[in-house]
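To illustrate this point, what follows is a protein record of this kind.

___
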Amino acid sequence: MGCAGSSQTKGDGTVKKIRKPKPWKNPQPLTKTQLMQMRDEFWDTAPHYGGQKEIWDALRAAAEADLTLAQAIVDSAGVIVQSADLTICYDERGAKYELPHYVLSEPTNLIRDG
């Protein structure tokens, strides 16, 4: 039985808290519509890269949520976070999941649609 001050830990005894990704710049300025299209294409094809569809779904939900909810999503899905910005994660079976920066945050040179 845990106490109120206990926390869930991963295999190495620590929980990696997720954080906001570092700012990034796309080689060419993107509109919000173009960014959303790139994200949709990634998520549509992500399960074909390997791993479990349920984990990809959890990672998408986490990528689209605020940090507190994202942390709860990855914790409940059993996702092992290697990079605190969610760019590299693993599932409990050891499958690797790599997320590009464009699905996690907006570029610094984003052009707002008209």
In short: The helical segments are 32-45, 53-63, 67-77. The chain has one domain: 30-111. The first strand starts at residue 30 and ends at 31. The two ends are 56 Å apart (CA to CA).
